[in-house]
Automatic annotation (TrEMBL):
Name assigned to this protein: T9SS type A sorting domain-containing protein
GO terms under biological process: xyloglucan metabolic process
UniProt keywords, alphabetically: Signal
Organism: Eiseniibacteriota bacterium
Signal peptide bounds: 1-27
InterPro entries according to UniProt: WD40/YVTN_repeat-like_dom_sf (IPR015943), Xyloglucanase_GH74 (IPR052025)
Amino acid sequence: MPTLRSFSAALLLFGGALMVGASPIVAADWVVTSLPSGYHYRLAVGLNGMVYACGGSQLHVSADDGVTWTPGGVIAPNTLPQALVCSPSGALYAGDFAVGVFCSDDACATWLGVELPQATHSFSTGCFAFGTGGEVYAGTIDGVYRSSDLGLTWEARSTGLLGRHVRTMAVTADQRVFVHTLYPAQIDGLYRSTDRGDTWVRLGGNAPYFSALIAAPNGDLLGTSDESVFRSTDGGVVWSSSGSGLGANENLTSIVITPTGRMIAGGYRVDRSDAGVLDAGDGPTRSSAHVLRQNSPNPFPRSTRIGFTLARSARVDLAVFDLTGRHVATLAEGVHEPGEHAVMFDGSVLPAGAYLYRFVADGVTTSRRMILMR
């Protein structure tokens, strides 16, 4: 196994969630991507806008919402990740029930094993979720664990859960926690906690068996089951199918929403919705009333101007990445006053191609794409 880093140190790289705005989710049709079929793909979205797909131990990366993919290297030999998560810093985490958790913070060039506390069979972890108050939730084959100190210590939080094998979990912005659990060799059901996991209530309604759950920025829940994607707008009680076009026996295991509002679902293959499912509009990208503007000119031959507007004083981080996720430049950082701001990006020493610039203000991240031409 590669060199271990402590789990608490690894979690310091976490601390936020990708937000794309509180807009309504609509149904969508689906089209298959170019990735080879036959794997149980796990998906994640980085804060630089990159979409990551892990099939077996092989990672693939897309900079255009899943239209095209490039190889991203091998995580570790003999790994079959059950979870894939990106941190706000851009670090990527992959969790395997049998082998453990691995982390890459250098654009997937190298991976390090992450040392988990209580690393026994009962703590085998297949999913993680993060609360807005800094809590870390681990879904294991023996219930839910919660940490309030970045993984230094853990507390069991499974009161009310009948099935203890946590298959998937999601946390909404208002701190509701959802898990789908299993008994040994059979399905239990969907549970909700409104007290940070202290107690759980089994939900009725028409929820199917979920292999993946995510919380959308507007509070809706999305879940995958077999070859279908479902949506709930009432806190997980009533579920409806979201679109058509997914293949039979696809066995979906993962779903993400990209910064442009498109859904990408992974199973034996990877599918993308044929249009954005969040009505984000065509105007500037907005995050908590702050505005990130498209660079101008775009495309650009040498340098370009990037503007942003702050509704109030905020800590800002504006950085540029290439399509592999490698950090290229930091354009702005630190506390900025409200109002209009602009920076120049000089790409004269860089190869031509597409780049992404990532804007973080008040802990909310948005990204845009720009083209350097010669």
